Automatic annotation (TrEMBL):
Ranges in coiled-coil conformation: none
GO molecular function, one term: DNA-binding transcription factor activity
The species this protein was found in: Streptomyces nymphaeiformis
Alphabetical UniProt keywords: DNA-binding, Transcription, Transcription regulation
SUPFAM superfamilies (alphabetical): GAF domain-like, Winged helix' DNA-binding domain
InterPro entries the UniProt entry points to: ArsR-like_HTH, GAF-like_dom_sf, HTH_MetabolicPath_Reg, Tscrpt_reg_IclR_C, Tscrpt_reg_IclR_N, WH-like_DNA-bd_sf, WH_DNA-bd_sf
CDD domains (alphabetical): HTH_ARSR (cd00090)
Pfam families: HTH_IclR, IclR_C
Every HTH iclR-type domain range: 6-67
Name of this protein: DNA-binding IclR family transcriptional regulator
């Protein structure tokens, strides 16, 4: 801590981070031990966070992240989109296919940024805001593979006809970006994805991840 920082705010943010890292919640005692502060301080922190819906406590007294973080999370999309656009533009122009950044939104994959190539005669129309199940399409499958530890070399996922008849996709997950689960990919009208596309998508995903760190 320095003279310019707030100890109370720092502790509150640490509470949120601790709760975000657990699926079953934490008790006041557990939080007290992890923060190294007494239970009274933890009670006050939780009460304040509850007022803003950032924390909720279940009937057993365990604290969990509250729904209020979703409202904050929605504002992250524009920032992520802005950071990803340069890499997506380069990818779309290089491959001649529609490039996209897809993030996890609940049980679905949500396209938050889309760039279409400028020089092609035709390409797949793909709009920001498009949703699809995580287990369909290259974008969602790449995310699931990374989540389950099943993504091995060459580091990308290929699909054909899962979201749109006649369209093929390639996607690679974002790796090493804290708090962001997503993928970068392309979709094209082709029976198969050309060999060079997969590695190029992996490079683009790495560029986006670097921009978000």
């Amino acid at each position: 801590m320095t003279a310019e920082t707030s100890q109370t705010l720092d502790r509150g943010l640490r509470v949120l981070k601790l709760l975000a890292d657990t699926d079953h919640g934490l008790t006041v005692t557990e939080l007290s031990n992890r923060l190294g502060v007494n239970r009274t301080v933890v009670y006050r922190l939780l009460a304040t966070l509850e007022q803003h819906a950032l924390v909720r406590r279940d009937l057993g007294g365990r604290a969990r992240v509250g729904l209020g973080v979703l409202r904050l999370g929605r504002q992250v999309h524009p920032l992520v989109r802005e950071a990803a656009l340069p890499a997506l533009r380069s990818l779309a122009e290089d491959i001649g296919a529609t490039a996209h950044l897809t993030l996890v939104d609940g049980a679905e994959a949500l396209a938050v940024a889309v760039v279409e190539p400028t020089w092609t005669d035709y390409h797949v129309a793909y709009r920001a805001g498009f949703r699809h199940p995580l287990d369909r399409g290259a974008a969602g499958r790449a995310i699931l593979a990374a989540r389950q530890g099943g993504l091995t070399e060459p580091g990308y996922t290929l699909t054909h006809g899962e979201l749109e008849a006649g369209a093929s996709g390639a996607a690679a997950p974002l790796v090493g970006v804290t708090g962001v689960e997503g993928s970068v990919g392309v979709v094209m009208l082709a029976d198969a994805v050309p060999e060079r596309v997969g590695p190029r998508v992996v490079d683009a995903a790495r560029e986006v991840a670097d921009a978000l760190r």
